[in-house]
Amino acid sequence: MNTRELFAAEARAERPDLARLCLLLAAEADPALDEHAMDRAEIELDRLAGMLPYGLRDARSWAAAVTELLGGRLGFHGTPKDYDRLSSSLLHEVLRRRRGLPILLSVVWLEVARRAGAPVYGLGLPGHFVVGFGDPEDSVVVDPFAGGASLGAGPAELAAAPKTPARTLDIVLRILNNIRVWASARPEHSAVALWSLDLALLLPSHPAALRYERARLLVERGAFREGAAEMDAYAEVMDAVDKDEAARIRGEAVAARALLN
Predict the structure, then answer these.
(1) pLDDT value at position 161?
(2) 228: Cα within 13 Å, side-chain hemisphere
(3) What angle do CA 196, 45, 135 make, to 5 degrees?
(4) Contact status, residue 156 vs residue 172, Cβ threshold 8 Å
(5) 62 near 141, Cβ under 8 Å?
(6) For the purposes of burial, counting CB atoms within 10 Å of the CB of 184, is it exposed (0-12), middle (13-18) or buried (19 or more)?
(7) Residues 6+ apart with CB under 8 A from 143
(8) Which domain of life is it from (predicted)?
(9) Does position 103 have pLDDT exceeding 80, yes or no?
(10) Beta bridge partners of residue 125, listed in sequence order
């Protein structure tokens, strides 16, 4: 199977593997990331987990140990400039550079801690992503982007946010959304926006509006016939929800086909 088929199969597994999905999506951006390179990234996560001390029991001890290793000794953290780099959303590059977006640094924290047996989960906050240790109702929450600083020392709105563990596929969708936003601000990278949409649509659950967004992107890239066909298909879905919106989208499809003349 090719990487997209592998991605789709993993996303539909009973227990999707977060690291594997992150590496498979990264392969869309980096053709050099073949099966052997993915294995090396997984081995690196195993190696880091093996550097954690044995015998840890409570959430605070786990949070302190993982933070001391990743944020302290190894220097994993983020900077404002990381938002300007596609590599900040690619797991193998984050492992190499030890820099990345909050959600990718959190993936490193999660995967290393899980491999070592820690009670850990991801927490998606508005505009940020962090990691919790222990019972979500009474856990220790740290910010990997800040090198693992305790969230209690951060903004009050983050400290008071609901602590609902993020599901694996929700994390992957959020990563793909970040990539799409990055590419959308850079028209020369419309191909990146397209593959991020393609992968998001392979997830078992995704916003239906992504189909319309993909159709518009195809038209912008000059694939008028294909984009128009997808607009028509999305309009059929919208008929059951908003007939006026469906009619408007069909009008866009007509306009897209007219560009073929």
Answers:
(1) 61
(2) 14
(3) 85
(4) no
(5) no
(6) middle
(7) 102, 128, 130, 131, 149, 150, 151, 154, 158
(8) Bacteria
(9) yes
(10) 128
Selection from 242, 179, 247, 184 nearest residue 208 by Cα: 242
pLDDT per position as a tens digit, 57-80: 899 999 999 999 999 999 999 999
Q: What does the angle CA 25 – CA 30 – CA 32 come to, to the nearest 5 degrees?
A: 120
| 3-class SS of residue 236 | helix
Q: For residues 124 and 31, what is the distance between their CA atoms, to the nearest angstrom?
A: 29
Neighbours of 162 (CB within 10 A): 7
Does residue 55 sit in helix, strand or coil? coil
Closest residue by Cα to residue 179 from 69, 244, 47, 86? 86
pLDDT digits (tens, 9 = 90+) for 169-208: 999 999 999 999 999 999 999 999 999 999 999 999 899 8
Q: Which residue has the tokens 């990278």?
A: 189
Report which DSSP code applies to 53: P
* Exposure on the CB side of residue 4, measured as CA atoms within 13 A: 10
> Which residue bears the tokens 């990146």?
192
What is the CATH topology of the domain spanning 3-168? C8orf32 fold (3.10.620)
Q: Where are the domains of the chain?
A: 3-168, 207-258
pTM summary value: 0.92
